[in-house]
Design goal:
The chain has five helices and no strands. The protein is mainly α. It has one domain (14-195). It is rod-shaped and about 100 Å long.
Length: 201
């Protein structure tokens, strides 16, 4: 029997090139955002270092200009030393913040890669079912086997309409992709929140 034209008209899904384009654009935007974030943090680090150096030199100069008795000079040197030590500690803390931000940026890239692989596997499974691909084909079996761990929690969560010709709209896959996308956004938001913790100056 032929396919049901009404069902085919009701349920449409972007072709493979469109899906790949969207995935590529999303990944490119993610990489660009990470690069912008890291550049911003590096610029902030340099600003902090310059500010601290300027404050140290200014403070020492002001206190040196007001030297009076030997006791006052000793006190000024002590205060200047304490201030210098504090400034150095602040610079070290800022450098640690920058390094942590870079490390978390790398973690975020790995997380992005893992999730895009999941999206690709689930998307391919969706297309194969929609096109009524033969379940006995090696490639189909490979995709089904590899994507099963990610698809299993959502199997049967909603009905999957199908035609007499075997074309199936795997709506559970759509639910799975949306769920993983939300999880993906949540993890990246958490990583950015940790990386962007401000250092007090």
């Amino acid at each position: 029997m032929g396919s049901n034209p009404t069902l085919s008209a009701r349920y449409r899904f972007p072709d493979a090139p469109t899906i790949h384009t969207l995935c590529w654009l999303g990944y490119a935007m993610s990489d660009e955002k990470l690069a912008i974030d890291e550049a911003r943090r590096a610029a902030q680090h340099e600003t902090v270092k310059s500010q601290v150096e300027g404050e140290v030199q200014s403070e020492i100069g002001e206190r040196a200009a007001t030297k009076g008795t030997p006791g006052e000079a000793q006190r000024i040197d002590q205060v200047a030393g304490e201030f210098r030590s504090k400034a150095v500690n602040e610079v070290v803390d800022t450098e640690r913040e920058v390094e942590r931000g870079r490390g978390l940026a790398r973690v975020s890239q790995v997380v992005d890669y893992i999730f895009w692989v999941i999206y690709a596997l689930l998307g391919m499974r969706f297309l194969l079912a929609l096109l009524a691909a033969r379940s006995s084909a090696g490639f189909v079996q490979f995709i089904v086997t590899v994507s099963n761990p990610f698809y299993a929690p959502f199997r049967g969560i909603v009905a999957s309409p199908s035609t007499d010709a075997g074309h199936t709209l795997l709506l559970p896959v759509v639910v799975a992709i949306i769920s993983y996308a939300l999880l993906h956004l949540g993890i990246n938001a958490l990583l950015r929140m940790i990386a962007h913790r401000k250092t007090e100056i």
